[in-house]
Amino acid sequence: MEIPPKSPDGSEKSPQSKELMTSNTASTLCISSRSESVWTSASRSKWDIYHKPVIVVSVGAAVFLFGMVITSLSCIQIKNKNVYKMCGPAFLSLGLMLLVCGLVWIPIIRKKQKQRQKSQFLQSLKSFFFNR
């Protein structure tokens, strides 16, 4: 028979006691979850809520304007005209896509915020009436 190795501090633990040891998995999952704002009720600033779509809209507008400049250079510039004609519309379409995605994202966030406020209100009503 094999003798299990002793722990460094000299105390032996049986395999059953190792299984009964508590796990920190549940608390780790709650801490690392993406929807941490559901667990905390701290209010967030407008910038915390809307910073991603604002950045997408800003980058989209900049790329769109860059595409307009490059496209207009294809009309003026004689040298490398084919390069400008290919790159200009590509930047125009990419910028327009980012701009529209960011502009559509903002109303979606507003709708989610309203739903979350309604949900918190209903939860407080439930807890008020059912916890008596």
UniProtKB/TrEMBL annotation:
GO cellular component term of the entry, any: plasma membrane
Alphabetical keyword list:
Membrane, Transmembrane, Transmembrane helix
Subcellular location(s): the record lists: Membrane
Q: List the transmembrane segments.
A: 54-78, 90-109
GO MF term set: phosphatidylinositol bisphosphate binding; transmembrane transporter binding
Bilayer topology term: Multi-pass membrane protein
Region annotation Disordered: where it falls in the sequence = 1-22
Q: Which PANTHER family match?
A: PHOSPHOINOSITIDE-INTERACTING PROTEIN, PHOSPHOINOSITIDE-INTERACTING PROTEIN FAMILY MEMBER
Q: What is this protein called?
A: PIRT protein
Q: What is the lineage of its organism?
A: Eukaryota, Metazoa, Chordata, Craniata, Vertebrata
